[in-house]
Amino acid sequence: MSTSASTSTTAHDGPAEVAPTLDGPVPKTLGFLDQGAFWANLGVSLLGFAGVLAVLQPAGAPPLTVTAAVVATVVGTLIGSAMVGLSAMPGAATGAPAMVLLRGLFGGVLSWLPSVLNVVQLVGWGTFELVVIAQAGTLALGGPTWAWVLGAGVVTTLLTLRPLGMLRLLRRVVTILVAISVAYLTWWLFSRPELDLAAGGGSWEGFWAGTDAAIAVAVSWIPVASDFSRHSRRVSTAFTAATVGYGITQIVCFVVGLAALALVAGDGDAVFAPMLAAPLGLVALLVLTARETDQSFANVYSTAISVQNLAPRADRRVLCLVIGVLVTVLALGVTIDDYAVFLAVIGSVFVPLLGVGVGDALVRRGAAPDLSRWAPSRPLMVVAWVVGLAVYQLVNPGGAPGWSDAWTALRDAIGFAPPSWLSASLLSFVVAAVVAAALATLERRDRTDATSG
Question: Per the UniProt record, which residue ranges are transmembrane (predicted)?
Fold first, then answer.
C-alpha cells in the first residue's frame, strides 16, 4: 500500500488539503461540525425530491400509499444511514480511503473489482446530479438545458480540486442557507389547502421494496464514506456525523418531495413547480440548486479516489478533470426516468458488500488488515459478496431491462416467491455477513493448519 494510511497528520500539523496521490500525508482536520454539515447537505438533494418516487412507486412492486411511503422512508433511511456511519469508521481509524480498505477484505488485486463497480456507480450518480441541477435551473430561470449541464459540470470539477476547502465552506455558509430554504419550502407545501396526502390510492404491499429504495439511496455512499472520514479527528465523530447528519436530512427531503408530488398528481417532472409557486420559492430553489453541486462534487471526487486504488500514483487533480468532463458529457444524454432502475442495481451491490466487511471484521477483530497494494487475495470473501448480491436480486430484482429479467427468470425456475414483508437489503446484508464470517473462520483455520504443518 502507499503510505497514505500510515502517515496521517494531526489536527494541527501538516497540509490543509488532500495530497494529489495516495503516497501523500492525510490531513486530520475535520471535526464533528465539518463532517455533520457535509453529510447533512448530502442528505438534502434535488434528486431526492423527485427520486422519492422510487419509494412511492418501487420498481417491480405495487405503488404505496403516502403513509406507507413515509414509513418506508424513515425505516429505510435509518437503516441506510447507520450503514453509512459504520462504513465511515474504518477510514477514520486507518486514514485509508474506501477502496484501499477493501484490499484488506478482498486482497490487493481483487479489490480492483469493487473499485471498478464503484467508479461505474459514482459516474452514474454524478451524471444524474447534473441532470437534476439542469432540470431545476431550467425551470427556475429558463435557458437551454445543455447550458445548465455545462455550467454545473464546470463548477463541480473546480470544487474537486480543493475538497477539504469545500467541506469547510459547507459548514460555514451553505448549511445555514440550505436549512432556511428547506424549512421555508416545508412550511409552504404543507400549508397548502389543496394538499391531499391521501389521494392517489396505493397499498402497503410493496412496503419493503420501497424501504429498499430508501436504503439504496443512503448506501450508495457506503463505498465513498471513508474517502472523507479518513480526515476525521476521531472515529466516533465520523460515525455520528454520518449517521445523524445524513439520516435526518434525507428523511426531511423525501417527505418534502412526497408533499410536492401530491400537489402535482405524482408527476416527477413537475415536482419543483409547487416550490416555485411560493413567494420566495425561486430564491429557495436557487439556493438548493447551487448547493446540489456538493453532491456531484462528492461523486466526482470519490471516483478519482477509487481510480487511485488501481493507480496509486495517478494525480487526483488530473483524474477529477477527466471524470468531470465525462459526467458532463453523459448528463447531456441521460434523463431522470432512468433513476429508479439505477437504484435497484446499486443496493444489490453495496449492501452485501458492507455485510461481508462486518462478517469478516467480527472474525478477525483485533487483527490489523493488510492494506498493501499487493495484499494476498481472499477469493472466499468475493464468494460471500456474490452470495449476498444473489439473495438481494432474488428478493427484489428491480426493473433493469435484461438484468432484472434474468433474475426474475431464475426466481421462477427455482420456485422462489418472496413474501411481501421480506426486505432484500436486510436479508442480503445478514446472509453476506454470516457467509463471510463462516468463510473467514475457515480461511483462518486453513492458515493456522498450514503454519503448524
Answer: 38-56, 68-88, 100-125, 145-161, 173-190, 206-226, 238-265, 271-290, 318-336, 342-363, 375-395, 421-442
CB-based contact 2:22 (threshold 8 Å): yes
Q: List Cβ neighbours of 200 (8 Å cut-off, separation of 6 or more).
A: 63, 65, 66, 262, 265, 266
How far, rounded to the nearest angstrom, does the alpha carbon of residue 442 sit from its chain's CA centroid?
Answer: 32
- The pTM of the full predicted model, rounded to 2 decimals, is 0.84
Distance CA 226, CA 93 (A): 10
| Domains and their CATH numbers in the chain | 3-452 (1.10.4160.10)
**Using CA atoms, how far apart are residues 254 and 324, in angstroms rounded to an integer?**
27
Nearest 10 degrees: CA dihedral of 42, 44, 49, 50?
-10
What secondary structure, in 3-state letters, does 24-51 show? CCCCCCECHHHHHHHHHHHHCCHHHHHH
Instruction: Note the helical H segments in 191-277.
Output: 207-219, 225-229, 235-240, 246-263, 273-276
The end-to-end CA distance of the chain, in Å, is 30
How many whole angstroms separate alpha carbon 45 and alpha carbon 124? 15
Walking along the chain (453 residues) 10 residues at a time, the average pLDDT comes out as 40 64 86 90 84 83 89 94 94 93 94 91 88 87 92 92 79 82 94 82 86 87 92 94 95 92 82 90 90 89 94 92 95 70 70 91 84 92 95 83 85 88 88 96 79 62
Sign of the CA dihedral with 305 first, then 168, 252, and 86 last: positive
